[in-house]
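Final report, Chapter 2: Outcomes

The project's central promise was a pipeline that accepts a single protein chain and returns its three-dimensional structure in a standardized token representation, suitable for archiving and comparison. That pipeline is now operational. To close this chapter, we reproduce one record exactly as it appears in the project archive, with the input sequence first and the structure output second.
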Amino acid sequence: MGRSYDFVTDVKSDYALASADLKVETCTMSLRICILAAGAAGMYCGSCLRDNTLAAALLKLQHDVTLVPLYTPLRTDTRGVASPEIFYGGINVYLQHASKLFRYTPRIFDWLFDRPWLLRAAGNMGAGTSPARLAGLTRDILLGYNGPTYKELRRLIKFLADEIRPEVLILPNLMFIGMAEALGEKLHCPVICELTGEDVFLDAMNDPDRENIRELIRAAAPHISRFVATSAYYAEKMAGYLGLPREQIAVVYPGLADEIVHAPRSDERRTRSSEFVVASLARVCPDKGTDQLIEAFFQLKEFSGTAGIRLDYAGYLGPQYKAWHRILQERIAVYGLADSMRYRGEVDLADKLKMLDAANLFCVPTRYPESKGIFALESLSRGVPVIAPAHGTFPELAQRTGAMHLVPPNDPIALAAAIRDLYSDPARLAELAARARPAILESFTGQHMAEKIAKLCQEAIDARASS
């Protein structure tokens, strides 16, 4: 018996194909969904946060959902809903890739290497490994049953078949697409694959590894029932990468957890009169443009009347970037701006919300075209307008929310001018701020995301049943 949905068409996007996204209103029956999520060791990872929010929102909608961690435990700043058992443990996967001996060890031996504390420690140590050095491991995982990590796939399938029996399975990214055929056949269910920003990793590999991995991914693509991208920009890009018609990739924008959207807001921003705070919350690294934001502040201080502007930035700082960041800090001191720019380290949810609630503007000037933009949505949910580079998902989010100001990518001078202009135009800033939170409540909550994903899951189930 099919499950029924009511939905309306949402036509807000600049992107024609994204305008066909469906906004689901109700779901009359429960689905049994398994979401696989790749952990990022000790980091807060946008994809992990999104998958945890999706699972929690689906559970709230009364679906039967299991969130299964891969590689390492998931680290989230909201209530975690993941299963405690970890599959494809990062240490075991690496050992099986590196040596035939570990492909035949008993489970009790593998279990020792799957301890969460050990996986977190190993993940932190390996966080700086370049994509080029991980090409062989990526290829082995993509080979599925035909590769050296088949033992991990067999264990995952047994767990899912015996304990979960999903009606639909969701893969976290293209790096796991090689397991789609075996999962679909053994579990007798459709497999959906998320597209959430893996291009940054894949494109950073060297030839011929990059092309070889792309061929493996394309060969496995027919075993996916539906691809789901986090933006129209990314759907378009990945359609080309996969060699698929664009209409075969759905778009479901990220949604925010209730703990962020509905947390009480402080009045700190309204009680300050002498400061204008620009906040930035993301990994501290060149990819996220931390150095460009700091450079923009160097430029900003050349303008008259900007002495009251301050930068607060926070986020995970990996060991590979500590020397780079130390040089930035030294430059800040040389410029005499140590009192105007403060790095807060990595913050938890409470401190993140305090930072946002104290900010007048938010900016993460990513060098690469961002596929999700979750940090921007979090800022908007607290009523803080966003300055963002005009690439990736940001033009879509700007059009859909009306609360963002776009600047040319990789241009600190233009960024500095934009900060100065909004600082000097309180009416324009207030106009953007007034639109921010209502836009999130209308389209970017966890419930919005979960309803759309549930509809895609039902479509995949119905399509498989009729084939």
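Archive annotation: Residues 1-26 have pLDDT under 50 and may be disordered.
This record, like all others produced under the grant, will remain available to the consortium after the project formally closes.
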